[in-house]
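Chain A, query sequence.
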Amino acid sequence: MPKATQSVLAEALRLDVGARAELAAELLKSLDGPADPDAEAAWAAEIGRRVEAIEAGTVELEPWEDVKRRIEDEILSR
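Chain A, predicted structure.
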C-alpha cells in the first residue's frame, strides 16, 4: 500500500464509528461507477408490481422465520 494511502487510512481510522461507516459507504459507492438511469425506474416499477400483487392477495407470502431457517440450512449444508 503506498504511503499516501497508508496515511489516509490512518487518519480515517481515527474517525468515530459513524464517520468511518459513512466514509466506507462513499468509497464503495465510488467503485460502482455511474448509476444506470434506467435501473432506478425499472426497480420502482418492479416494486410497484410486487406491492400490487401483495395487496391483491395474488402471491403467497412466507414468514421471515421460515425464510431465515431455509437460508441458514442452505449455508450450513455447504
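The radius of gyration is 21 Å. Residues 65 and 71 are 10 Å apart (CA to CA).
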